[in-house]
Amino acid sequence: MALGQLYHQSCFVCNKCHQPFPDGAFYQHENQLLCETDFNELAFEKCAKCTKPIDGECFNALDKKFHPNCFRCQRCDMALKGGFLRFDEKPYCRTCHDIVVKEEQEILANSCYRCKKRIDGPPFLYRGNKYHAFHFNCTTCKLELGPDCKEHEGKLYCPEDYARAIAPACFACKKLIFGQVIQSMGKAFHADHFVCAKCESRFSDGIFYEHLGQALCELHFREATGTRCARCKCVIQGDVVEAAGKQWCANHFVCAGCDKSLAGDSYGDWDGRAICAGCFTKLPTKVRKRLNDHRIHVEKRYKAKNGNKTSGSKMNLNGPNGKSSGSKVNLSGGAGGSRGNLNGSRAQLGGSRPGLHGQ
Q1: How far is it, in rounded angstroms, from Cα 238 to Cα 147?
Q2: Which stretches of sequence are listed as region Disordered (predicted)?
Q3: Does the pLDDT at position 332 exceed 80?
Q4: Amino acid 98: pLDDT
Q5: Positive or negative torsion for Cα 222, 340, 303, 280
Q6: Average pLDDT over every residue of 296-323
Q7: DSSP string spanning 100-144?
Q8: Could you tell me the residue range of the domain that residue 143 belongs to?
């Protein structure tokens, strides 16, 4: 008989493990008959560390119960009877707590943003976070990326496909440019393909002239813009002399009367022809007067437009009798052999840098 009940001998067993009671000893708990082992498990709290029943002093921490001697520092195993610090839901003494916090900070500083695992070697930085590169695939070839992958316009590429993604296309051959690139006129060229649009020769000293969107050498630029010598009618090569409203080869700028070179000398304008002072004095008086009247008229218009500044140098030309005829001609000054106005831009090539345009 137990708990006021009668049992068969074979039915008198522990209500939990259904085993006979050793030596007939049993325990009563919540109207159940239990062996000593099951009674201890049900009647007493279990220690969160050793899982054994706590039948004496109990230590409550981390929302769990412990034997006082089982509640220890997670790192150094020192009993924490005098207090503890919590980190990652584990108890630590103060010294160990500071150490594990520092270690965790170091791990987080070099851990993958996606998988949270430590990154060995250089991390892959993407949108401000660190990753293992193998979490991504190349936009073009779809292969798994390595630490040397690159980002372009928000997309990720392996090194080979990145080079293709950023490479400009040559304006001449339409192929991608790898290596040295010439940037000019808002276009990109292979170094070997940036040539004169007419003769396809490379530019001497890197100087070219732009005309109607094309790069030209000096010869073909002058040919295209009509820079021809007033005497020989050929395209001017080399220095240009501008005088008498025309352009000349430097060695062809001579007096229309005696073929004397006017380079560095004063000259007069005789109906669009340049003449030296000596030949001017040989002209008929009426012709010299007409030229002088024209000069005065031009000079007045120039002064009216520009103030009292003179339009050029003046020279007294004597008549046949050695007396001053009173006529003056407007002289355009000496021919200095300077490069003339080419009505276009010229540029200096700078290797892979853009051309710098100037006059």
Answers
A1: 56
A2: 300-359
A3: no
A4: 93
A5: negative
A6: 51
A7: HHHHHHHHHHTB-TTT--B--SSPEEETTEEE-GGG-B-TTT-PB
A8: 111-165
Q: Is 27 exposed, middle or buried (0-12, 13-18, 19+ CB in 10 A)?
A: middle
- C-alpha torsion sign, points 289, 291, 296, 300: positive
Q: Are 35 and 19 in contact (CB under 8 A)?
A: yes
User: What 3-state class would DSSP assign to 331?
Assistant: strand
User: Do 163 and 150 contact (CB within 8 A), yes or no?
Assistant: no
Whether the pLDDT of residue 260 is over 50: the answer is yes
* Positive or negative torsion for Cα 64, 67, 68, 69: negative
Work out the mean pLDDT of the chain and round it to a whole number.
75
Tell me, what DSSP letter sits at residue 254? B
Q: Has residue 8 been placed in a domain? A: no
Q: Provide the CA 312 distance to its chain's centre, in angstroms.
A: 52
- Phi/psi for 241 (5° steps) reads -110, 125
Residue 100 domain-assigned?
Answer: no
Q: In this structure, is residue 15 part of a structural domain? A: no
Tokens of 60: 């409550």
Please name every residue paired with 65 in a beta bridge, in sequence order, or none if there are none: 60
- Asked, for residue 240, whether it belongs to a domain, the answer is yes
